[in-house]
UniProtKB/TrEMBL annotation:
The name this protein goes by in its record: Thioredoxin reductase (NADPH)
Pfam hit, one: Pyr_redox_2
Enzyme class: oxidoreductase
Native source species: Clostridium algifaecis
Domain of life: Bacteria
Domain (FAD/NAD(P)-binding) ranges: 6-150, 180-272
Enzyme Commission code: 1.8.1.9
InterPro entries reported in the protein's UniProt record: FAD/NAD-bd_sf (IPR036188), FAD/NAD-binding_dom (IPR023753), Ferredoxin-NADP_redctase_2 (IPR050097)
SUPFAM superfamilies, A to Z: FAD/NAD(P)-binding domain
Keyword Mitochondrion set for record: no
Length: 290
């Protein structure tokens, strides 16, 4: 059975991604949206919002709930999977989720801001012991030693799952919150200096210690755009786009905080609409040429 080739794949479920989704959906495009269960971690942290047109004196959680109600009304669902890499294949894109591939004629990047720089050795050993999806790759480490470097609370659920398969599981919290981990998980409150190895990962070096490990999962909200889409042109640490939200890669659009300041919800939603409309125009032009 052949893979479904979507018209538009949207990576990100914040205001930009969801705005792109609803605008593509009402124009009858076959879409898929990759995101997180909270839809937008940034929005829910806002105690009060007064600069989003039509919504004033509203909390971030309330605005998130209105977003959720809107997409559900249009029958839009979120795919809770992390894209590891996007490959430009000419007339379509292949989106890799740890070996599982999705196909789409166009993509819209709405990934927000990458707040965390890669750890030393992280990119070098990606695919060689370093991974971003613990639940996907955990079976590969059955009976082995695994280190989880978690940047958010969601990483704890993944760590608990891994600990049921691995012989030894280390957890390195990169945040300060009360942990909810299985008793067999060893917690390391130390600063990561480097992920090391030869052909593959064999240890993690900390400021005050080092441990031998067979695999390392780095679990954070997003990866850098250039790591996600090889060849993507950047400008001042943001994705470079024109007024149509087009990137330097044909069929690839971007919207929201990942394209630069100001980091505002209403700006992101507007750019999401522009990206979707231009993706639709691009798709229609492809049909005319075929």
């Amino acid at each position: 059975m052949e893979n479904t080739r979507y018209d538009i794949a949207i990576i990100g479920s914040g205001p930009a991604g969801l705005s792109a989704a609803i605008n593509a959906k009402v124009r009858n495009k076959n879409i898929i949206v990759f995101g997180i269960q909270e839809l937008s971690n940034k929005i829910i942290k806002a105690p009060k919002i007064n600069n989003y047109l039509g919504f004033y004196d509203i909390t971030g959680i309330e605005l998130r709930d209105r977003f959720k109600e809107h997409i559900e009304n249009l029958g839009i669902s979120i795919t809770f999977e992390r894209i590891n890499e996007v490959y430009a294949m000419g007339d379509y894109f292949a989106l890799d989720v740890n070996g599982k591939m999705y196909e789409s004629k166009t993509i819209i990047l709405a990934t927000g801001i990458e707040y965390t720089k890669p750890l030393k050795g992280e990119e070098k050993f990606l695919g060689k012991g370093v991974g971003y999806c613990a639940t996907c790759d955990a079976p590969l480490y059955k009976g082995k030693t695994v280190t989880i470097i978690g940047y958010n609370k969601e990483a704890e659920d993944d760590a608990n799952y891994v600990s049921e398969l691995a012989k030894t599981t280390y957890y390195v919290p990169m945040y300060k919150k009360e942990l909810a981990l299985n008793e067999n998980i060893k917690i390391l409150n130390d600063r990561v200096v480097e992920i090391q190895g030869t052909d593959k990962v064999d240890k993690v070096v900390f400021e005050n210690n080092e441990i031998a490990t067979d695999g390392v999962f780095v679990l954070k909200d997003s990866v850098s755009p250039t790591q996600l889409v090889p060849g993507l042109e950047m400008e001042n640490n943001h994705i470079k786009v024109n007024l149509d939200m087009k990137t330097n890669i044909k069929g690839c659009f971007a919207a929201g905080d990942c394209t630069g300041k100001p980091y505002q919800y209403i700006k992101s939603a507007g750019q999401g609409q522009v990206a979707a409309l231009n993706a639709v125009t691009y798709l229609d032009s492809m049909v005319k040429l075929s």
